[in-house]
């Protein structure tokens, strides 16, 4: 299984009445299928998965499986707070045809969670899962960071094939890559450091930004792969500005607005997430227009 | 509605096969009914609510309603990440006969959450709820703190009757009490500062520790109410040691072990929470024995 | 030695040419001498001690000794990064007639500093000092917090007679008081929680706010001592608002401006500290006018 | 002025009686002169500058100037808390023949320090300084981080020629490089991410580790300059382990011990810094032996 390249963390479109819109979700995938994206992540943080019911999540899993072109790797977010529920969701994702489960850390009982808890949790999930799993460390949302020692320990499990590390901490990639088995894949979740992550041994990335600017993210990956370091450094700088203005500063509302500008079905996030403020729109319009595929090539 | 005094944050007992045990839950309430506790909090953080399914939660709501003595105020934890789901859970709790909803902050999309998000979220919930609500700020688990300005603003809503503040920050109580309406109740969630919280204007507390040591917590509240400040200061010190060793350092596993020692149905927490380590038990045995009602009075 | 009551953390007045003005410093003390302040802290954080040369500091020590009325306890801030320099400053303060040294934690090499470092540092200073010392924990400036175990351990040293804890964390007072010798004095450095600190066992306070509003701070201390808890709670609320607007939000520039309004020699802070912004002044004018001794008594 | 390549943050050797040993300091430089180091940083954080008197600091400045080979760039740490003292130290360093001043942020009055304070402070220093200055952001010690907007703003000043950023945050380099003038030099202070920093546009590094392993640090810089990315990635991993065990986990005591092993004059740090614990030595012995120049080439 070739888990490398760029994967978008897919957003969840909602209809005007607030219900999930699988048909719009599929429309997005139809367009993504024509890009160099390596696959798709359904029900990740960017997909507002913590705001969805179980039935809504399953509707999206089904839609994703149906719309994805052959050869696109299908990854489902399945992490829940309890170990048992995480296993149940992982099995369900597998039954929907997903090939990999992306399992975020439990994060509520922080004072009780430590390395031993994560080892036990992830090993239980990996033992029970019919599909391989990716660890997922995303402290910006969870307040929990998987540290090098536990990542290295978990990397030994045959059914744990990699990690999505969204911290943007390059030092962790530098440390994990040589200590983990050679086929353990580190994927970064941080678009502003995609190139330095790849240069440090990451195999790819799962990026919210790739839902709005898939071509540019893929282009950076290709520049790195071709050894075009100077060009990669330059495109990285541009992607960092775009990612900061669109994703870091405006979260899912900003990303969905950028998607709308690019012709995807973005729309509004679900409450308590608020729509993008009017005064934030102009900057995103500018950045997206600068990052259009044509503009970059010219 | 007299929302003052001591409320235990109830734990959830599990059977040996890992299933929820409403009959054990009811057995605990039968004993609590004989104490001076003012009421009960079902499905709070201490109740492992984030590890329960909807059906399991409803079984506990029903059991709590059934077992609670008349006059004991019934509070249900109903906070979910999405506004709509929070409203749904709040209505359900009301339909089960609960009198107050305890609504923790949404906490996943931290970079997007700010004062405006909390105002909108809580007002939407309070508008839709058939029962009054308590705000709930518990950064030790959520990473989110409700600050004075938004608390004071929300306190104006007629259906928001108070807050459970688990930060242990006494300054916030000092600030909120004079700025909020006179009948807005601040409840602390921090046993080690119960007395200074009361001395600063808090009306009571919702405490995990009160599930193991209800008599001592109630006794401290009574000492304060009777103006016995020196005795209150002294008992506070003893409760602080107990709370630190039982709850702060050992979380739900420690609390359940202390409950077992006191004859309640504590048991084990649900995974990913791990059972209490053997080497932590002796210290809890000592503290509980020192805090037995008889020992204190002697 | 009666280390209790209210001590102002004195500010350092500068002349128009930026030089230290010991004559203005003495003028302030002459007025403070007529209040119920228990003594004075010279060269504390509020005194901009880290912005002064050795000669400037000694000029202030001399001026303080000269101007203080008999019976006012004299405390000098002597903490430096190195143990040897801290000892040297402490001896110098003693030679100037100061009765107690206030020794802030070293704080630069944070990754290397731990409990063992603090034990060794403070014991070395206490062993060498001709005068008793107060520990000083002020993480808002240093990023370093003295925790309960090391405080309790250091409290056993015969020449360490107390601590100024500026964290505002009441739980630490609750924990330290019963574990330390009976004559170990906990002083809070946080005006917004002065009353709850006293109610939890603190013996007094060292407060920046007391440089602008000494009468009100002393009044709160007296209310507590007389067992007037309801009045204390009420005055505490008012002091908390004043402290937040004057000190917490505007730092030394705000405090000095409030002093100017009260007829003391406040003036401007030294660079890199900037003068108070114009738009911040009105709120301080209002608060100070509400807190004038006459206004309170009326 | 060619501010690129690897600069060691020099340590300060002490004699057995605790006094500064300029002769040992010079002996170290004599050996460093034979390496590919681009220059030297005297009186940086690693030099225990905050534990030294003014006279001790000047003795080291003189010794450094005397011992450094021609062509080695001389950088002096001159940052103090007050703006005036920073200027005074900077002028003194220039008078000793130093070519660049490394100016760490003021850091004590954190609640009062903000972008405006840093702009004013650094511009005042840069205006007054006879030599160009480097900004210095080192939150691990100061708790203060210079953020992209203020760095970019300060980069416009003709006498501010670069920054030492010790955060290890690669995203900041990605952001600053394209926004600052082309000749603004970003130097990283973080050995574990030297290669990704260079790949992101940094021009070099000031490293504590380079005081013990100068050849290896220079080798990594050269690999990058020659476009040998795969070899750079591999050496980076090895340096990251060495840096973590020697510097991150054991601070100056660990670094000095590693220097001793390599034949430099390391010795003990000054109190309150404690000597390296015995049980930490073996791991450092192993790492240093693996990183000996011969071992790497074999």
Furnish the topology, listing elements before pairings.
The structure is a homotetramer of 298-residue chains.
Chain A: E1 5-8, H1 22-32, E2 39-42, H2 54-67, E3 73-77, H3 83-95, E4 100-104, H4 115-128, E5 133-137, H5 139-142, H6 148-154, E6 160-165, H7 170-179, E7 185-188, H8 194-199, E8 204-207, H9 214-225, H10 229-248, H11 251-261, H12 281-290, H13 293-297
Parallel strand pairs in A: 1-8, 2-3, 3-4, 4-5, 5-6, 6-7, 7-8
Total beta strand runs of chain A: 8
- Tell me, rounded to a whole number, the average pLDDT of chain A: 96
Q: In angstroms, what separates the terminal alpha carbons of chain A?
A: 35 Å
H/E series of chain A: EHEHEHEHEHHEHEHEHHHHH
Identify the overall geometry of chain A.
globular
Radius of gyration of chain A: 18 Å
Percentage of residues in helical conformation of chain A: 40-55%
Describe the biggest sheet of chain A? 8 strands, parallel
Largest interface chains and counts: A-B, 38 and 38 residues
Assembly level: homotetramer
Strand order of the largest sheet of chain A: 1-8-7-6-5-4-3-2
Number of helices, where a helix is a run of at least 4 consecutive DSSP H or I residues of chain A: 13
Share in β-strands of chain A? 5-15%
């Amino acid at each position: 299984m070739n888990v490398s390249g760029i994967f978008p963390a897919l957003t969840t479109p909602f209809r005007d009445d607030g219900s999930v819109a699988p048909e719009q979700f599929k429309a997005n995938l139809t367009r993504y299928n024509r890009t160099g994206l390596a696959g798709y992540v359904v029900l990740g943080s960017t997909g507002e998965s913590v705001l969805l019911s179980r039935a809504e999540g399953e509707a999206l899993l089904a839609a994703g499986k149906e719309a994805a072109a052959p050869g696109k790797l299908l990854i489902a977010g399945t992490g829940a707070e309890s170990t048992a529920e995480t296993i149940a969701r992982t099995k369900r994702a597998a039954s929907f045809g997903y090939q990999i489960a992306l399992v975020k850390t439990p994060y509520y009982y922080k004072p009780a969670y430590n390395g031993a808890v994560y080892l036990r949790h992830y090993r239980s999930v990996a033992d029970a899962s019919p599909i391989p799993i990716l660890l997922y460390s995303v402290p910006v949302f969870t307040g929990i960071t998987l540290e090098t020692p536990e990542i290295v320990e978990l990397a030994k499990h045959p059914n744990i094939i990699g990690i999505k590390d969204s911290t943007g901490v390059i030092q962790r990639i530098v440390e994990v890559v040589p200590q983990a088995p050679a086929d353990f894949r580190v994927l970064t979740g941080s678009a502003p450091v995609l190139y330095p992550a790849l240069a440090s041994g990451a195999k790819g990335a799962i990026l919210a930004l790739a839902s709005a600017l898939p071509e540019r993210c893929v282009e950076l990956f290709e520049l790195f792969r071709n050894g075009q370091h100077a060009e990669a450094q330059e495109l990285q700088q541009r992607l960092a500005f775009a990612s900061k203005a669109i994703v870091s500063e405006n979260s899912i509302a900003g990303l969905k607005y950028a998607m709308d500008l690019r012709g995807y079905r973005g729309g509004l996030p679900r409450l308590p997430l608020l729509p993008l403020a009017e005064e934030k729109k102009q900057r995103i319009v500018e950045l997206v227009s600068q990052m259009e595929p044509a503009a970059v090539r010219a």
